């Protein structure tokens, strides 16, 4: 199997798969250390789609995992013979499609009472493929952004561990279509609407990024770009 993504979530998944005896044929990420635990080949690819042939030749079991991966799979990789591409998404699909860093923020602003992780097939859309499994958890009334994001990351890893044996055995099948429930997409453009939520009662909780501020610079930039409140003063003396 091949792994595509970055960060601790990817590295933990690679390590877990290797220690369970699953073949790790290639790790595609920015950091070569992501492949070290599995003693696997490493590929740093700015655009994974340009390496479709490499992935098809390297993969011994036809399984490609996407974890904490911001790259979008496109042709010809999507139609590469013998490859099944699976994504572990931080969010419940299709309610929280797009960037998890943005989806968590709006989940709090919209008053969602639960969040989680979703395992799904990758198709030509963005987080639109058939859902294989999910791991849900409640959002409490006092939960802040960093609480929900951390639980989402933990849910992603738990879900990967849960579904890995069935995927490897070829017995993991879609439980439902990703379009079976109301859908929402949260990309960077959604942050343009953040200013309209300034007076929302959940705004402080939703923008309390905690340790994730350094991992999601798009969020801190969005806050810095917000206009000052209408009743603020310039500080100049009359």
UniProtKB/TrEMBL annotation:
UniProt pathway: Purine metabolism; IMP biosynthesis via de novo pathway; N(2)-formyl-N(1)-(5-phospho-D-ribosyl)glycinamide from N(1)-(5-phospho-D-ribosyl)glycinamide (10-formyl THF route): step 1/1
Enzyme class: transferase
A Pfam cross-reference name: Formyl_trans_N
Span of domain Formyl transferase N-terminal: 71-160
Protein name, entry field: phosphoribosylglycinamide formyltransferase 1
Annotated EC: 2.1.2.2
Keywords carried by this UniProt record: Purine biosynthesis, Transferase
Keyword Transferase: yes
Superkingdom of the organism of origin: Bacteria
């Amino acid at each position: 199997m091949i792994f595509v993504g970055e960060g601790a979530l990817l590295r933990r998944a690679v390590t877990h798969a290797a220690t369970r005896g699953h073949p790790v044929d290639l790790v595609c990420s920015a950091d070569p250390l992501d492949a070290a635990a599995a003693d696997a080949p490493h590929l740093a690819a700015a655009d994974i789609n340009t390496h479709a042939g490499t992935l098809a030749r390297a993969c011994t079991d036809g399984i490609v995992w996407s974890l904490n991966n911001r790259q979008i799979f496109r042709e010809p990789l999507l139609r590469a013979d013998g490859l099944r591409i699976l994504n572990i998404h931080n969010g419940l699909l299709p309610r929280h499609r797009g960037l998890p860093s943005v989806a968590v923020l709006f989940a709090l602003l919209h008053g969602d009472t639960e969040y989680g992780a979703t395992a799904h097939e990758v198709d030509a859309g963005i987080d639109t493929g058939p859902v294989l499994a999910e791991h849900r958890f409640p959002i409490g009334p006092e939960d802040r952004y960093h609480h929900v994001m951390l639980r989402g990351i933990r849910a992603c890893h738990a879900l990967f561990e849960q579904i890995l044996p069935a995927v490897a055995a070829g017995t993991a099948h879609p439980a439902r279509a990703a379009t079976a429930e109301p859908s929402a997409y949260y990309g960077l453009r959604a942050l343009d609407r953040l200013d309209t939520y300034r007076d929302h009662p959940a705004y402080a909780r939703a923008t309390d990024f905690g340790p994730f501020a350094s991992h999601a610079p798009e969020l801190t930039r969005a806050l810095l770009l917000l206009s000052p409140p209408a009743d603020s003063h310039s500080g100049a003396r009359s």
